[in-house]
Amino acid sequence: MSDKVPVRVTINGQERAAEVDPRRLLVEAIREDFGLPGTHIGCLTGDCGACTCEVDGQITKTCMVLAVQADGSDITTIEGLANGEELHPIQQAFWDEYGFQCGYCLPGMLFSAKDLLEQNPSPSEDEIRYAINGTLCRCTGYDNIVKSIATAAKRMASA
Amino acid sequence: MTDAPAGKNVGSRQRKLKGDLFLTGRATYFNDITVPNVAHAAVKRSPHAHARIVSIDTSRAAAAPGVLAVLVGEEAKELHNPIPYFIDPAVFGGKSPPVYCLAVGKVKYWGQPVAAVVAETPGDAQAALDLIDVQYEVLEPVVDADRALEPGSPRVNDDWDDNLVIEIPFVEGDCDAAFDGAEHVIEGEFRMGRNSTQPIETRGNLAVWAPDGSLTFYGAIQNPHPLRMHLSQTLGIPETKIRVIAPNVGGGLGLKMHGHPEETLVCVLAKRIGRPVKWLEDRRETLLIGGIENVQRYKIAFDSTGRITALQNRIVANVGNLTSAPGWGMAFLMGLSYPTGYKVANTDVGVKVVTTNKGVWNAIRGYGKQGTNPVMERMVDAIAHRLGLDPVEVRRRNLIEKHEFPYPTNSGLNIDSGDYHGALDKICEWLDYDNLRAEQQRLLEEEGRYMGIGLVFELTPESADIPGTIVGGFDTCTVKMDPQGNVTVLTGVTSPGSGNETGIAQIVADELGVDVEGISVIQGDTDSCPYGFGNYSGRSMVTGGGSAVLASRDVADKLKKTAAILLEAGESDVQLVNGMASVVGAPEKAIPIPQVAFTVYTLNFAIPGIPEAPLEATRVYKPQNIRHTPDEKGRIQPYPTYSFAVHAAVVEVDVETGKTTFQRIGCVHDCGTMINPTLIEGQMAGALVMGIGHGISEEIRYDDQGVNQSNRLKTYLLPRAGDVTSIEMIHQVTPSPFTILGNKGAGEAGVGGGMGLVLSAVNDAIRPLGAAVESLPVTPETVLRAIRAAGHGPGATQPNWPHA
Amino acid sequence: MISKRFEYHTPHSVEQAVGLLAEKNGEAVVLGGGTWVVPDMTHGTITPGHVVDLRRAGLDGIEAEAGGLRIGATATYTQILESELVRERAPALHALAVGITGGAQLRNQATMGGGVCYALPSADPHGALVALGARYRLASKGGVREVDAESFYTGVQQSVLQPGELLTDIIVPEQPAGSRQGYYKFKLCESSWPIVTACAVVVVDGSGTVTSARVAVGGASETPYLVDTAGIVGATLGPEQAAVVAAAAEAACARPYGDPLASGEYRKMIAGAIAKRALLAAAG
C-alpha cells in the first residue's frame, strides 16, 4: 500500500516524472521530488499562501492539492517566473520597491500580482490589496508590496 | 558625538543585497537544507494542561513502518543537562525550574512535548505518534494568573510554594502622598490577551554529528553564537566542537530566539540513531508559543491642567509554563518601560511574573514595551476625556521636552535624545488635526457615522545588554579586502529578513570607497563569523553597524597609508571614493583601490612602509550610555538608545457589529540617523501592521481547562493587505549622542504603537456612545459588548438611512 | 505531510464515484476542491483509507435548468464568479464568491459544493442557498434524491448526507419575477471565516411596495435559517421595515453557533444587522 505512484508534470516548461509517495502534498512533491525549493511551506492549511504556484493557468495553494492530483498538470513555480537571468517585471519591481523583507511569502505575492495584472493591467490600490489577500506577509505591513505591484503595472503598461 | 561617514551610501535607499536570489526562489532557508541520510523527528504532545504521566508505552510506535527510535522524557533526562535559560529569573532573585526537552514526571501545559519519534519520513514519524500510549492522571490546571496567585491554587511546579516566578518593583518618589493630594485620580483595569509572533516560516532544527563527536546544528534561529553556548552546556561538549548555522530566516520576530525543547531534542535523537535528524515545526506547534498576556490595575493622579503627578500600576503577567526561552523577560520590560516618555514624578509600578498551565512564552518583537505603551497612552487619553482637554494637548503637557535630554527616568533608564513635541506637531500637520476633528463631529451629527482619531506616542528602548545573561549589547565585525579588492564582511549580527546586511554593506562601502553591491556579507555561521549575539532588541545596525564602521576604518587606514606611498601624498590627504584612492584636491592623482590592495599583498617586502597584510580587521563596537553599576537605588541602565514615534490613525467603527475599518494610518518616526530610509520604513510598516494585528484580531485563546483554541491561521487571525491601508511615513531625525553613527534601534518600534493606535482610535470613535474598551485585542465582539454595556440596544445606534 | 496511508481514486463518472463510495463503505472521503479535506488529512483529523477525487467526474458545469440554474458540485468559486448565468439568475451567489477567505487561490480551488457538504456554519454559501430555495441533488448507488437546502443542514458539520451519498449538483430554482437579490457577508477581518452571512430575495412592485421577501441567515445559528418577513410584505421598504426584519432575524437564531473567533451570543447580536444589510443590498 505504500507503493509510490508515478506523477508526470510539466514544470517550468520541462517535462518531469517522479515516483511519489501518494501521501505527499503537491508542495512537498515540488520541493522534494522535483527539487524546486523556492515554493515554501508556511502553514499546510491554505492560509498563508507561501506555497502558491500556477497550476494549469490558475494560481493555486499547493498544500491543498495531493501530488497525485497534479499528474498531467502544467506547473509554474517561482523559479520559473524569470526569463533566464532577466527578472520578470514584477520581480524587478519587488526588488526596486523593497517589496519583501524575509522573502518567504514571495511565491504567493508574486503569483497573486501576476494573476492580477493579467486580468487587470492598471489596478487601483484597493484592487491590489484585494488581489493579495490570499497571501500573508508578516514583515512588510503590505505597504511596499502594494507599491511594487503598482510600479510593475506602470512599467508593464509602458513596455 | 556622532561620527557618520560622509559617503554616498549611508542615508541612501540602497535596494536589498542579493534580492534577486529571493525573488527567483534561490535563497536557501532552513527547510531547503539537505544532508545525506537524514531522518525526521515528530513530537508527541500533551493533550492536557496539567497531568501526571503515569506510564508511556512506546512499543507499538517503535515497531511502526519507518520508525528508527522513540524517546520519552525519563530517558531524555539522562541524555542531556537541563536547558540553560536565555535569561534566568534566578539571576534576578526569582525561581526557575529545570527544563528538559521532554516532559519528566508531569505535563505542565497543553502541547508540551512528551515523547518523540524519529523515522525515515516526516509522515512515518507523524503516523507513529498515535501509536504511543501515554497514561495520564489528570490534575486540576491553573489557567488564570490571578487564580494562580491565590493560596491553595494548584501549583505548576510541585516543589514551589506558589506560582510566582518573580516580583519586580519599580518605585520612585512618594506615590502615596501624591495620590493623597491629587486633584484628580483615574483608576482602571486593563487586560491584554496572549498574542504571538507567527513569522511565515516556522521554526526548524537539524543536528548532524560527525564521527569525531562534533556537532553541526542548522536552524531557523536568531542567535547562533549564544545558542552554541547553550547547546554546549546542554549536551556537555565544548563549544569548540559545535558549529551553528543559520541560513536565511523567513522572519524571526523573537520566536527564533532559542530555549525551545526541540533544539536539544534533535541533537539527542541524532546521537541516539547515529544519523542526522531534522525537525520542522508545524504551524499548530508555532501557535503553542505566545506572550504578552497580562492584567494591569492602574491608578493615575493628575492636576486640573492635565499634568500627571503620580502613577501606580500592578501588573500581573501570565507567562504560562516557564521555559528556557527569553519570553518571560518581556514582563520585566513592561514595568521597566513606565512611564515611557512622560514626566511623572512619582511612580510605583510592580510586576508579578506568574507561571500557569498555559503555553509557553517566547520573545515577541517589541519585547514587552508593547505591554507598556498602549496602556500608558490609554491613561493619557482618559485624562484628556476626564478634563475635557484635547488628547494631543495632554501629551504636549506631559512629554519630556527637547531640552531635557538625556533624561533619567524613574526606573533608572537614561533616555538619550528626542524631540517628542516636534513629532507631535508633524503628525498633527499630516492629519490636518483641527479640521479632522470638525469632520468627525459632522459625520456623527449628519450621517450617524462613528469616526475615530487615534493618536499615540511610543517609546522604544533598544539594543539591550543585560548583565549576567547572554543578552549582549555589543557586537563584532570582520572586514576583509582580498588582493583583487573584493570586500567580505563577517558579522555577529544576523538578519531574519530585516535587511541589516544591506545597511552594513552601505556603511562599509562608504568607508572603503567601494561599490555596495559588490560587498559580500556573511552572517549566521559560528565557524566563520566573529563572536556576536545575533538578532534582537533592534541592535543590528547599532552594534553591527558600529562594529562595521570601526573594522572598515582599520582597513581603510591601511589602504590610505599604502596609497599615500604610491601617490606620494600625505596619508591624511588620501580619500577612498568611487573605487579610487585619490588625493583630495588633486583628482589626477588617483589609483584604483584594487591596485592598492594588490600592492599590500604583493609588494609588502618591495616597498618600504607598506602596512602589514592582510587587509583585515576585526572590531567590537560597544555603544555608550549602558550602565551596569547599580545606582544608589540598585538600578541599572541597560539600553543605549531610545527610538520613538508618534502614530495616528483614522478609523470608522461600524457600531452595529463593532468592526473597525482603517481609513488612514500615519507615523512620525525618529530613530536618529538613518542608514537606509527604505529599510527603516520597511521595519516600521511591518511592525505597525503586526501591532495592529495584535491590537485588533490576534489572540491565542485557551478554554478554562487550558486547552489551546487557536490552532491555525484561521483561528489566530493575522492582518492581511485588505485589513489595513497605506501608511504615511514621516521621518524626524534626532541623532543619538551615544552611538557612533547617531542611529538608534529601529527594529521594534511600531508594535506597541499599532496596538495603542487601535485602542485609542476605537475608543475615540465610540466615546459619543459613552462606551470604552479597556482590553486588547479590540475585536468587533469586544467593541459591540462595550457599546451594549453603555446601554445601547440593537438598532439604537444604526446609521442614518440609507447607509451605503 | 499526510501520515496515514490511503488509496487514491479518480472516477470518471458519478456512477463510478458512487460505486466506489458504496464499495469502500465509509472508509472513503470525497475530494472536491480539496480546501477542507486535504488540510484535515494533513492534520490527521480525518484518516480515510480511500480518497475519491471528483475532478474527472464531470461535475463542474454551470448550466441553465428549468428556468433556474444547475451548479455542479465541483464548480469552483472562480467559475461561479465568471459565469454569466450566475450573474443573471443568482447574483447573490456571484456576490458571495467575491470575498472568499483565502484570496484568488481559494477561489480557484474551493468549490461551493464542498462548502455545502462540509457544513461548517461559518461558511459563505449556506444562508444564500437557503434564501434562494436551492435544492441539493444527492446521488448514491440506490439512486438520486433532492433535498431542500433548508432541510439539508442538521447541525455543526452535520447534514442529511448519508455515507455512500454524493452531492452532484446544486439546483437554484427560478426566482420570483421581478425579484432582486442581496447578499452580505460579515467577517472579523480578511483572515477570518465568515461570521454571519445573510441573503435576501425581494420583490418590490412599481409603487415601491414589497410583495414578497425571502431572507435567510447563515453562520449565526448552528444551521442556516429563514427569517419571518411577513411583517414587511405590503409595506414600503424603509428603516422601520428593516428593523422589523432585523429583529426577526435575531429572534430566529435558535441555536447560536460559537467558535474561537466569535461567541454564539455575539453572532446572535449581529444577525439582525447583517440580515438588514442583505435586505438593503437587495433593495438597491
What's the helix and strand layout?
The complex is a heterotrimer of chains A (159), B (804) and C (284).
Chain A: E1 5-11, E2 14-20, H1 26-33, E3 52-55, E4 58-61, E5 74-76, H2 89-96, H3 106-119, H4 125-131, H5 143-158
Parallel strand pairs in A: 1-5
Antiparallel strand pairs in A: 1-2, 3-4, 3-5
Chain B: H1 19-23, E1 39-45, E2 51-57, H2 59-62, E3 67-72, H3 73-79, E4 106-107, E5 113-119, H4 122-129, E6 133-138, H5 145-149, E7 164-172, H6 175-180, E8 184-192, E9 204-209, E10 215-219, H7 224-235, E11 242-245, H8 261-273, E12 277-280, H9 283-286, E13 294-302, E14 308-318, H10 329-336, E15 346-354, H11 369-387, H12 391-398, E16 407-408, E17 414-415, H13 420-431, H14 433-447, E18 450-462, E19 475-481, E20 487-491, H15 500-512, E21 520-522, H16 540-567, E22 574-577, E23 580-583, E24 586-592, H17 593-602, E25 615-621, E26 641-654, E27 659-670, H18 677-696, E28 727-731, H19 751-766, E29 775-776, H20 780-789
Parallel strand pairs in B: 1-12, 8-29, 10-11, 14-15, 20-21, 27-28
Antiparallel strand pairs in B: 1-5, 2-4, 2-6, 3-5, 7-15, 8-13, 9-10, 9-12, 13-14, 16-17, 18-26, 19-20, 19-25, 22-23, 23-24, 26-27
Chain C: E1 7-9, H1 14-24, E2 28-31, H2 37-43, E3 50-53, E4 62-65, E5 68-72, H3 77-82, H4 84-89, H5 91-98, H6 103-109, H7 112-118, H8 126-131, E6 135-140, E7 143-148, H9 149-152, E8 153-155, E9 158-159, E10 166-172, E11 179-187, E12 194-204, E13 210-218, E14 225-227, H10 239-251, H11 264-283
Parallel strand pairs in C: 1-3, 2-3
Antiparallel strand pairs in C: 4-5, 5-10, 6-7, 6-10, 8-9, 11-12, 12-13, 13-14
Helix pairs in contact in C: 10-11
Could you characterize what this model shows?
- The complex is a heterotrimer of chains A (159), B (804) and C (284).
- Chain A contains five helices and five strands.
- Chain A is α+β, with helices and mostly antiparallel strands and 159 residues long.
- Chain A has a five-stranded mixed β-sheet with strand order 2-1-5-3-4, sandwiched between helices.
- In chain A, strand 3 and strand 4 form a beta hairpin.
- In chain A, helix 2 packs across helix 5.
- Chain A is globular.
- With 804 residues, chain B is of the alpha+beta class.
- Chain B has 20 helices and 29 strands.
- In chain B, 28% of the residues lie in helices and 23% in strands.
- In chain B, helix 10 runs parallel beside helix 11 (369-387), helix 11 (369-387) crosses helix 12 and helix 18 (677-696) packs across helix 19.
- In chain B, strands 3-5-1-12-9-10-11 form a seven-stranded mixed β-sheet, sandwiched between helices. A six-stranded mixed β-sheet of chain B has the order 7-15-14-13-8-29.
- Chain C has helices spanning 14-24, 37-43, 77-82, 84-89, 91-98, 103-109, 112-118, 126-131, 149-152, 239-251, 264-283, and strands at residues 7-9, 28-31, 50-53, 62-65, 68-72, 135-140, 143-148, 153-155, 158-159, 166-172, 179-187, 194-204, 210-218, 225-227.
- The radius of gyration of chain C is 19 Å and the shape is globular.
- Chain C has a five-stranded antiparallel β-sheet.
- Chain C is of the alpha+beta class and 284 residues long.
- Chain C has eleven helices and 14 strands.
- Classes of the chains: A alpha+beta (159), B alpha+beta (804), C alpha+beta (284).
- At the A-B interface, helix 2, helix 3, helix 4 and helix 5 of A face helix 1 and helix 18 of B.
